[in-house]
Amino acid sequence: MEQAKFYNTIADGPELSTAYWMQTEDNLRVRVGVYDAEVPTKGTILLMLGRFGYAERYGRVAKQFADNGFATAVIDWRSQGLSDRVVDDPQAGHVNHFSDYQKDVAAMLKVVENLNLPKPYYLIGVSMGACIGLRAMLEGLPVAATAFISPMWGIKMSTIQRMAAWPLSWTAQKIGLGQKYVPGESRRIYILNTPFETNNLTHNSEMYAYWVDQAKHAPELQIGGPTMSWLFEALSECRNLSRLPSPETPCITFCGEIDQLVDNSAIKKRMTKWPGGKFSMIRNGKHDVLTEIPDAGDDVPSQIMAFFSNSER
After folding, report:
1. Judging by DSSP bridges, how do beta strands 251-256 and 121-126 pair with one another?
2. Class of residue 273 by CB neighbours under 10 A (exposed 0-12, middle 13-18, buried 19+)
3. What is the pLDDT of residues 242-263, one digit of tens each?
4. By Cβ atoms counted within 10 A, which residue in 2, 16, 132, 241 is the most buried?
5. Average pLDDT score, the chain
6. Domain CATH number, residue 215
7. Rounded CA separation 59/47 (Å)
8. Each residue of 51-104: pLDDT tens digit?
9. Count of domains in the chain?
10. CB contact at 8 A, 250 and 145
11. How far is CA 18 from CA 72, 113, 249, in A?
């Protein structure tokens, strides 16, 4: 474990923030960011982000957690942030097998344990990170409670898109084109090419400007669209997870009413079968309800911290 580059200025997080390199079992180097709490800690949040997340992305949210006694660890998944890319195009959102992300989870947990970050551990999974996180929980991730934000337990598509996505992505993998971008996607950085008024992430203009500033100052943290391999693997993992029972770990899940990226019906179906699980549909919320404006988001971070605190009683 070696110290890694961390962009404190653009993260705008807790003063005690740093990052570390850790090798995965398949010899990739991934980066794990750590935000320490400055007050007596209540535990450590394992923050698993979505497809273009990176350690600095939620520095301000980590500051809220730190101010309330929670340390936070967040990983750059393989082919994201400063972690190693697995294909030649560094902008490609690519994974060979969705199970490879579990190797990144294991590396993240090693950093947390090596640093003796306070227990209990809690999981916050955002979008794709919720898909990875649910699998990790089913395989024994030691968390006392979990919160999911717009979990990618299904990808939002029209019926025609879904009918085409399966055979096209499967075929692309079989004929050696898995590294090609999904049709309509490219190397372009979403946050730098999408005006706030038409973005599908948040109504929070201040947060959106924060992300744009991060992308301008550290474009190396950003990636473009997903590859055909990523699409096939993601569709397959969502289907496989849908066939498995929910764990008994205390869970609260938040979704945006007008989310355009994930399938809310798949989320509702999962949460109806989660023992004691809590579900909240955020009125008029877009995809990133963790950072939505109060009118839409209703201060989701505070609700999560209260849920985690109460789960220990």
Report:
1. unpaired
2. exposed
3. 999 999 999 999 999 999 999 9
4. 132
5. 95
6. 3.40.50.1820
7. 11
8. 999 999 999 999 999 999 999 999 999 999 999 999 999 999 999 999 999 999
9. 1
10. yes
11. 11, 15, 30
